[in-house]
Amino acid sequence: MPELPEVQTTVKGLNSRVLSRTFIDVWSDWEKIVKKPKDFRLFKKDLKGKKITKIWRRAKNVIFELSAGHSLLIHMKMTGHLMVGKWILENKKWKPAQKGPLEEKINLYIHILFFLDNGLQIALSDLRKFAKIELWKTEELLKDLESLGPEPLDKNFSFVKFKERLKNKKGKVKVVIMDPAVIVGVGNIYSSEALWRAKIHPQKDVSKLTEKELKNLYNAIKKVLSLGIKLGGESFADYRKVDGTKGDFDDERRVYKREGEKCFRCKTPIKRLKFAGRSAFFCPRCQKP
User: Fold this and answer.
1) What is the model's pTM?
2) CA 232 to CA 248: how far, in whole Å?
3) What is d(CA 251, CA 83) in angstroms, rounded to the nearest whole number?
4) Maximum C-alpha span of the chain
């Protein structure tokens, strides 16, 4: 699933390509992808003619602020990613108008296509069709987003505030830092990476963390997320940037999906645990319980 770095990379790419453009039409072969309003015809009617005035991220949501007080929210979920380009319909399938990275197979699962006033299109490729799209009144959306936790890379998110978010919390530290009500944007990839850098076992109870461990974890979360953004995200699976190319965080991956490979610090084989419905990758020597 795209996490904070992948979503922020997407937002950056969208801002450089489609800011100030106007939606003129939308197509979909999977109208259930639109959750609000549930009537796709009404969604199309309400979206047409709206100008993109701002594109930003909140948690793992891509948000297009539009004219007339509306906002379009897109959550890419597990296998979705947004791209910008030009596509043509051939044999009932959308294909890139030009050769290049958009032709990669993972970029061809297009289930919704937005048409813009300058001839460009925004496509959502989503292999498993889990993504969601919602059209809101901006005022109502902003109120709805208030329930989310703080942004870990916000300049005002200090170590003191981080400790406050974890205060009185119980449970496995990996699960807690992935909870968007605690802090947002930290998913399975970057939680494993941050815990490795902080030398904390993923199953350690968050209430048992020392002051030093908390400080190390705070710094590690900020470091891996910032590095993820700098490198354009992680693309070992489905995620791609808006031009269809891969992000470069894969070279910095230290534990995630490295089961059986040697730890970069101590050469001990990386192990994997399954709990809370997810996999946790860690070094049994560097990250002792």
Assistant:
1) 0.97
2) 6
3) 23
4) 61
Q: Evaluate the omega torsion of the peptide bond into residue 180 and state whether it is cis, within 30 degrees of 0.
A: no
The pLDDT value recorded for residue 92 is 87
The tokens of 203 are what?
A: 């199953």
Active-site annotation holds for 2: yes
Distance of CA 183 to the CA centre of its chain: 14
Look up 60 and say whether it is catalytic: yes
Band of the pLDDT at 113, cuts 50, 70, 90? very high
User: One of 44, 58, 215, 278 is an active-site residue; which one?
Assistant: 278
pLDDT interval class at 276 (50, 70, 90): confident
Q: Which residue is catalytic, options 3, 134, 193, 234? A: 3
**Cα distance between the two ends of the chain:** 27
Known active-site residue 289: no
Contact between 147 and 107 under an 8 Å Cβ cutoff? The reply is no
Tokens (6 digits) for 33: 């992808």
